[in-house]
Write a structure and sequence with these properties.
The complex is a heterodimer of chains A (351) and B (355).
Chain A: H1 2-15, E1 22-29, H2 33-46, E2 50-57, H3 59-66, E3 75-78, H4 84-89, E4 105-109, E5 112-116, H5 131-134, E6 142-145, H6 151-166, H7 172-177, E7 186-189, E8 195-199, E9 211-214, H8 217-226, E10 231-235, H9 236-241, E11 245-248, H10 261-264, E12 267-271, E13 282-284, E14 289-293, H11 301-312, H12 314-322, E15 327-333, H13 341-346
Parallel strand pairs in A: 1-2, 1-3, 6-9, 6-10, 8-12
Antiparallel strand pairs in A: 3-14, 4-14, 4-15, 5-10, 5-11, 7-8, 12-13
Helix pairs in contact in A: 2-12
Chain B: H1 13-37, E1 60-66, E2 69-74, H2 75-79, E3 84-91, E4 97-107, H3 108-113, E5 122-128, E6 133-137, H4 138-143, E7 148-149, E8 156-157, E9 164-171, E10 174-175, E11 184-189, E12 196-198, E13 206-213, E14 219-223, E15 228-231, H5 232-238, E16 246-249, E17 255-260, H6 261-266, H7 281-286, E18 288-294, E19 299-303, H8 304-307, E20 314-319, E21 322-323, E22 332-334, E23 347-354
Parallel strand pairs in B: 1-13, 3-12, 14-23
Antiparallel strand pairs in B: 1-2, 3-4, 3-11, 4-9, 5-6, 5-13, 7-8, 7-12, 9-10, 9-11, 14-15, 16-17, 17-20, 18-19, 18-23, 20-21, 20-22
The chains are: A alpha/beta (351), B alpha+beta (355).
Chain lengths: 351, 355
């Protein structure tokens, strides 16, 4: 009897009466769902005793969860590196008196494409030479992510405006967008030559409009797959992950070519609504760059660092590339002096 | 709400019995009040009127602003308004469903009615204690214009006419927790298992609700050698500083900003709409009439020779850096040498015609 009790106690000690697994909590942009689910599984496989908990949203919401909503995560990943400084460096954790973050690591890229529904009659018709004219025609149903909620949305508007310069058609943006919304989306050219797209507070489509708006670009995938849309502006990685055909847009407008950064910066999207008190709702055209940080209040900083170096290492990079998520080689840091040594080393810097 | 009276710790048995009886009566009365206030069964609505004599005790939890002014409410006062109890859930941007739960609150349409109501020209902006803000359109509040999903599958559905927007203060009959309350915007249906909507609409910690003006589309009809139209996006584009924006400072020192009238005539004086040579200067020098008609039927005729190449005779959409007063919306013709009668506002149509 005593031996049995002792054995049971030993078993309980070894296995844990409760859940003794360690955890690492990730929050990331919705366009990373596919690769990050695989990354989480791979990390768990190579780190027995560790549970990877994941959550995903639009990038602004991702960072807001850490700051304004006070949730604690070990790694926060944004589809737009521009969002991290205003949302995390400029906001102070009331508990510690310190900024929520002081560095970020840019590790992946992407480009915008026009994904095509496999059920659309336009499958053979939409290509690099025809797409911009076809989208002006009312029989083509095309999808946009809502720029008020999703970076892919304001990036899609940038693509449409940059297309005016690329195709030398000063009415192209108007012809694709005009009359589609109950409150108009307008474009002005400021004194510096930057085209400023102004999105009204209320953005809803007119009844019968051929433009379909959804809160997140990932929601457009279901509509493409069902045939409820002919096409939609998506990240290339998402189109490839879902096996969708797509039109590869000119580099001059797809926000994916490093050498054309100055050209992308000739467009800006300004939101009339101020959704978050901490975010000035103005987004300048730029390369699509994914970045992560380890929040200063990460509940498991040791594991956070392990995951970060795993993400930047050979296995992490292979998982991303296998899922068509282009990686940045080498990854970069905005402030190497503020980043942990292991992250610096993973970015090719000194320890 | 506190019911009954504190029980005496000491005292005679008789006093304890009397106290019990009194507590019982007060409890019964209170329960009847609670049932009435909560509208009885779920999915129902009471039609009580807010009583001006409802005790305002407690902190202000909501500020309401509209055309008819501003009102502030304590929780007591909100709970005295007509209540709605329904079932609301959300779908996150990445497809995670939070199943519908029972929420009780006040319909947003009822709240806005208290400060003058809303029309299609309005939006309703909700601001939370952390500064998060969200604006709802008339169509969303009055016409269930949401993207809606089956909570069981997450599949998109035609939005139900039963979708109702409420400022909720109770969940499953209890006050909202600090995680979401004291007030949260929920969009629900009267029956359990109804549709859910996108989570970004469910504003937590609401502090302020304001009726705002929605940005309106407008169009000015153009007729000439070719027809055309000048709508807000085209106008805003052309009137920008990097494009054809220009202006005039009136004798009172106010700056009117817009597009030179001669350039607008250039949109319809020949088949070339835009770009170099779009404005037919030769035709303008020969002379034609530019007829400006307002929405109220006023007609002003301008000779093309008087405004040719003039940057300071403009169709103004802004004055003093801000929006035009309503009487001049959407455009007003202004410029030096024009009399007050020759500067009409509320322009609806511009015609270029030979003399």
């Amino acid at each position: 009897m005593a031996v049995t009790v002792s054995l049971c106690l030993c078993a309980a000690f070894v296995t844990g009466c409760g859940n003794d697994k360690r955890q690492v909590k990730l929050i990331y942009a919705g366009s990373l769902i596919v690769p990050f689910e695989r990354l989480a599984a791979e990390f768990e496989r190579t780190h027995p005793g560790v549970d990877v908990l994941t959550e995903s949203h639009g990038s602004v919401q991702v960072l807001r969860h850490v700051t304004e909503l006070g949730d604690r995560f070990d790694l926060a990943v944004s589809a737009d590196e521009q969002l991290i400084p205003p949302l995390m460096y400029d906001r102070v954790d009331e508990e510690t008196g310190e900024p929520y973050a002081s560095w970020y690591c840019t590790f992946a890229t992407n480009r915008m494409v026009l994904a095509i529904s496999p059920k659309s009659s336009l499958v053979g018709e939409l290509d690099a030479a025809t797409w911009f004219k076809r989208l002006t025609q009312p029989d083509v149903r095309f999808g946009l992510a809502d720029p008020r909620f999703d970076a892919a949305g304001y990036r899609a508007l940038m693509v449409l405006q940059l297309a005016e310069r690329e195709y030398d058609d000063p009415y192209l943006f108007e012809d694709m967008v005009l009359g589609r919304f109950t409150s108009p989306v307008t474009v002005t050219r400021d004194a510096g030559g930057v085209d400023v797209i102004e999105v009204p507070e209320i953005l809803e489509t007119q009844p019968g409009s051929n433009v379909v708006l959804r809160g997140a670009s990932i929601q457009l995938v279901a509509l493409l797959e069902s045939g409820d849309l002919d096409c939609a502006f998506e990240y290339e990685s998402v189109a490839r992950q879902h096996g969708l055909r797509y039109v590869r847009l000119p580099s001059a407008i797809d926000l994916g070519e490093a050498g054309l950064r100055a050209d992308y910066r000739r467009v800006e999207v300004k939101l009339d609504s101020r959704r978050f008190s901490s975010v000035k709702p103005v987004f300048r055209g730029d390369l699509v760059r994914y970045a992560f940080t380890i929040p200063a209040n990460a509940p498991h900083p040791g594991l956070a660092l392990e995951f970060a170096t795993f993400l930047l290492g050979d296995v992490g990079r292979r998982v991303l590339e296998d899922d068509h998520q282009p990686v940045l080689t080498p990854p970069t840091l905005d402030d190497a002096s503020a980043a942990p040594r292991k992250v610096r080393q993973a970015c090719g810097g000194s320890g | 709400m506190r019911l009954g009276v504190p029980m005496p710790r000491r005292g005679s048995r008789v006093k304890r019995v009397l106290a019990l009886a009194l507590a019982g009566v007060l409890t019964a009365v209170g329960l009847v009040g609670v049932i009435a206030a909560c509208g009885g069964l779920p999915g129902t609505q009471t039609t009580g009127q807010a009583s001006p004599s409802v005790s305002p005790s407690g902190p202000v939890v909501l500020t309401l602003v509209g055309d008819a002014g501003q009102k502030q409410f304590t929780m007591n006062q909100l709970q005295a308004l007509p209540q709605y109890t329904g079932y609301a859930g959300i779908k996150s941007s990445t497809g995670v469903i939070t199943l519908p739960a029972e929420y009780t609150g006040v319909r947003l349409s009822d709240l806005t009615d208290l400060v003058g109501g809303i029309t299609k020209a309005n939006g309703v902006t909700l601001v939370a204690k952390d500064g998060y803000g969200m604006t709802f359109s008339y169509n969303m509040i009055m016409d269930h214009a949401f993207t809606a999903y089956d909570p069981a599958t997450g599949v998109e559905q035609t939005p139900s006419k039963d979708l109702t927007v409420i400022a909720a203060y109770a969940r499953e009959g209890k006050p909202l927790s600090e995680d979401e309350g004291p007030l949260r915007l929920m969009v629900g249906t009267s029956k359990p298992g109804g549709q859910v909507v996108d989570g970004h609409w469910s504003v937590k910690w609401i502090e302020r609700i304001s009726v705002t003006k929605a940005s309106a589309e407008w169009k000015v009809q153009l007729e000439g050698v070719v027809p055309g139209k000048l709508d807000k996006p085209t106008y805003v584009n052309c009137a920008s500083p990097g494009c054809h924006g220009s202006g005039w400072v009136d004798p009172a020192g106010k700056r009117w900003e817009g597009i030179p009238l001669y350039l607008v005539a250039g949109l319809i004086d020949d088949k070339k709409r835009h770009g170099a040579g779009a404005y037919d200067a030769a035709a303008a020098r020969r002379g034609y009439d530019i007829v400006i008609e307002t929405a109220t039927g006023e007609v002003v005729t301008i000779d093309s020779r008087d405004i040719a190449d003039r940057q300071d005779v403009v169709l103004a959409g802004k004055v003093g850096g801000g929006e035009l007063p309503e009487e001049y919306f959407p455009l007003r013709l202004v410029g030096p040498g024009l009399s007050e009668a020759e500067m009409p506002g509320g322009i609806a149509r511009i015609v270029v015609r030979p003399k």
